[in-house]
Amino acid sequence: MPVEGASSGGSGGSDSTGGGGSGAGGPVGSICGVKPAAATGHVAMENLCRGVVSMRSGEGNFISWRLMGYEDRGIEFNVYRNGTKVNSTPIVDSTNYYDSRAPINAKYTVRAVINGVEQGDSANTRDGDSATPTGIETT
Fold first, then answer.
1. For residues 77 and 91, is the Cβ–Cβ distance under 8 A?
2. 137 exposed, middle or buried (CB, 10 Å; 0-12, 13-18, 19+)?
3. DSSP 8-state class, residue 32
């Protein structure tokens, strides 16, 4: 039995307050190298970048990035180290990659592959640079 004032399914939230679910309520383009216009919902979402991070693990680097809430779960990705693609086939069903025997000072970007077409580099910051690579900090 439904509770008065409660939602029965759906994404929750409103166009101005956010909430769960998928969609974008902001501008069509993005400086982060992702395309919120691909959204199908109407819930406002944060304007996040792909957020590529890398961490040294053994003899290689572990790279991880965000899957945006409005993106299809079947989206594919290519990983680039210092401008060179490192995966032989697009990565499916995952938002991480282990780059074995990579140098500790490697810089990474990620490109989404949508319907077989590789998109531009995903930025890691919202400072206007379309492709800010991520690297491992060394001290």
1. yes
2. exposed
3. T
CA distance 33 to 125: 10
pLDDT above 70: residue 134: no
How many other C-beta atoms lie within 10 A of the C-beta of residue 104?
Answer: 12
Give the model confidence (pLDDT) of 2-56 as tens digits.
Answer: 333 333 333 333 333 333 333 333 344 544 655 555 555 556 667 778 889 999 9
- Distances in Å between the alpha carbon of 15 and those of 18, 40, 45, 85, 101? 6, 13, 9, 38, 46
- d(Cα 129, Cα 82) in Å, to the nearest integer? 16
* Interatomic CA distance for residues 50 and 57, integer angstroms: 21
Range 79-99 average pLDDT: 96
In the prediction, which pLDDT does 47 show? 73
